[in-house]
Amino acid sequence: MEKINRDEVAYVANLARLTLDGEAVIKFTTQLNKILLYMDKLNEVDTTGVEPMSHAIARKNAFRSDTVAASLTIEASLANAPDAKGSCFQVPRVIE
Amino acid sequence: MELCGLTIHELQDKLRAGETTSAEITASVLKRIDAVETEVRAYITLMRESAIEEAARADEAILRGEIKALTGIPIALKDIFCTKGVRTTCGSRILHNFVPPYDGTVVEKLRAAGAVITGKTNMDEFAMGSSTETSFFGVTRNPWDLTRIPGGSSGGSAAAVAADECIASLGSDTGGSIRQPAALCGVVGLKPTYGRVSRYGLIAFASSLDQIGPFTKDVEDCAILMNVISGYDPRESTSVPEDVPDYRAFLGRGIEGWRVGIPKEYFIDGIDPEVEAAIREAIRVVEKAGARCIEVSLPHTDYCVAVYYIVAPAEASSNLARYDGVKYGFRSEDNRDLLDMYKKTRSAGFGEEVKRRIMIGTYALSSGYYDAYYRKASQVRALIKRDFEQAFADCDCILTPTSPTPAFKIGEKTDDPMQMYLSDIFTISANLAGIPGISVPCGYTKSGLPIGVQFLAGHFQEGRLIQFASAYETHAKIEKRRPAL
Amino acid sequence: MEYEPVIGLEVHAQLLTNTKIFCGCSTKFGATPNTHTCPVCLGMPGVLPVLNKKVVEFMMKMALATHCTINGECNFARKNYFYPDLPKGYQISQYASPPAEHGWIEMEIDGGKKRIGITRIHMEEDAGKLLHDEHNPVSHVDLNRTGVPLIEIVSEPDIRGAEEAAAYLRRLHEILVYLEICDGNMEEGSFRCDANVSLRPRGTETFGTRTELKNMNSFRNVQRAIEYEIKRQAYVLDSGSAVVQETRLWDDTAGVTHSMRSKEEAHDYRYFPDPDLVPVVIDDAWIEAVLNTLPELPLEKRERFVREYQIPAYDAGVLTASRSLADYYEEVVRLSGQPKIASNWVMGDVLRFLNEDKKEIRACPIAPAALAEMIRLIQDGTISGKMAKEVSEAMYRTGKAPGAIIEEKGLVQITDEGALAGMISEIIGKNPAQTAQYREGKEKVFGFFVGQVMKATGGKANPQVINDLLKKMLAGTE
Of these residues, B28, B154, B177, B317, which one is catalytic? Predict the structure, then answer.
């Protein structure tokens, strides 16, 4: 049984901003199907009424106070930028 | 014995007694690195010069009588910890040139305790792997057999300790990434309770599972490092404001009368017979030490891998969205427009395993599949946690194998992701439940590969875990060997 | 066909905290790009968010002011999408469990009152800014705004027209500013609005297909955009076509909305609980504490002013336009005991001076106590109303107390009847012709005598006293 087809793999790749060439799509489709089939075993578990767990430890209300802390210098903020101009990061134009 | 082959506490005794200096210890470690690193390849970035300077400063401090928990001790860091001014790659091309402007919390704590940082160790790319084969910077080899993997993802940190290329190291553990390589390299590795050690500055793989812990040559060193790195951090919302005990106080206390749970679900087909024999022997050792072993059940064990390989990739797919070529790291050339840059950068910047997990995670969260995958997995995760709570009502700690097999051959499992995923089968549950776990050496295979035994305890029971591991270490009297390098 | 518009608004309000929602960087507007940034808001590897408590409290204030139910526990979720102004590749927002819901605000429409439901209020982080280069095919990214706290206020689709939408927005704006949790500056983007608009045949219940309108940066534009969109949809429907569900941008210059290119992919934000943030638990004690800090809200204040100070509804509306103006007025009333006169002076001279200088009431050089003192001086006849005009202007320019100004300018009114009587009899003696006219019944010449007295006293005579004395003396009774 196929859990995910090539079109869906391509759709997911686009969502994740990845390019998969033809061969990679085929390979990923095969591998993802195998993995997702394995995941099917979760359907054996009755989870009726079970609250999903998104944290390993139940902590609540972790806050900071509204006090200004030092920011980085522009030089430090941009030091790792692949491309920068003036005091801004620079990217290829967004086509809308 | 060369200085680099000693433990933290042995070296501290010598430093206190004035029998050696940090400069000598550091020189010994650097010499060892020069001798074996071409074979082991444990490091991505060596910090030779700053290590020598730090050692000199440590010696000055010792002369002034200021000896802190790690003064003058050479420690290696997995290349997943942000280090100010020192390249931090996470084993990925996409961060091959990233120099953080800040130190992570554990790095600050190590420095404050006087440690000498030797360098940044190799790892599976973004900690995704169990063999350190997915690193952009090449494969690290197991010091016990250079044709085999050191385990992963913290393979470099484990191998560096096993090969005496540092005295101890730090790694991170999302599904077994400390305990499994510790077992495969014959060292002690501890994954603390989620929230015990601050994750601030740890490059995230799966935020609800990641935890930082030490690799050491013995349990006492493990306690020493845990004393340094544990504690509440206001910079992390999931850090837990609980008091941290002195973990050294748990050493040598004995385990008489302890109830040790042996989960029946962990003795499965596919477990290597030599590993199984070593674990059976470990059970006998703890019984001889006065503990009583009882069978416990963790009924949802069989679902751990499936839950993990949904939850971890889902979180990772989001955590790794920031690597887009805009603010730092790798950016592709010749980009037609923004979308083209995103796709080229991420496709060329990430390796195949990372992309595979981003794909799984994106799919599991996508419209129409969220409930069937992510939500379902999160519900089963709650049941797995409940299993442990129920088991710990009947026992003080749990004993299992750390890994179903000893170190496997380089390349053996790279073509079959599912087989690779199953090698985490005994370690994943602790991350899902957030509980602490430790792997301690428990013997060797006939061919001389190390085997590890894993002990698990309830939330914030690292002290008891160290007490148990220390008693086991004392009674097991595992022969101390050194890899033939 | 006759259609009924169905409108719901989504408002994003930037909160007036000192620091960002998850890090200690400043939220100040207008700094050099990327100077209010740190590893956390730059989305650097390894960083973690910690929630600013003030953001929760500000959200609670708005929730309480809009009669929302505050939920005991809420969570943060990640909204995943790629854009250069979003450094982490996801926005931290709230999704499945909002902190506040099921509220309403009331507004006056066509003389009646109408309630608009509030579906939910939640907290989230703002994105950065993208500046498009005019000459090169590149964009520049400024991440100063990244992580500035927002609350999103989502209305029920209860609004039935463009004017009503604008009224709702004004009301929401007024409450936010009153609460002092948002500066309300639409031009700087601290108060932003998107509108969901659909039509249905009047008298039917089912909702039509809606479009989402964006890019409206003033109340007027919101109203114009909705008016346009209502007409456009009616035209589409009348011509037998169907409205396409899409996002449309308001073009201020052309006065039209146009479709964002439909290649815009179907959104799949992959929301999931943020594992780096823990649940926010709000108990009754906390709600109570925030409730105690809540100011009186504009509508309540307006009604109270009419009731308590007996001033017209219009005046009450003007005086409660901002909390600081209302506070100013009330302080003047408290010190002078003259609500109506105080209202005249505040609405008249004080607001006129401020408007001329484009100043806020907070920056008014006339302290409430000084204005009250001036009113007292008018009341007790020390100065005339006319003099007071001069005094108030001088108070505004110099910030000096009225007493000092009166002294400097020698403005004290002459009320001494003896002195004035002497002066008047002299004037009467000098002007026998006019006196005769008056006595013959030409009362118009009375004004002439008043003018003469004023001239003689340099305008300082108390008009009331002059009136009385003149009348008696011209009548020849004295």
Answer: B177
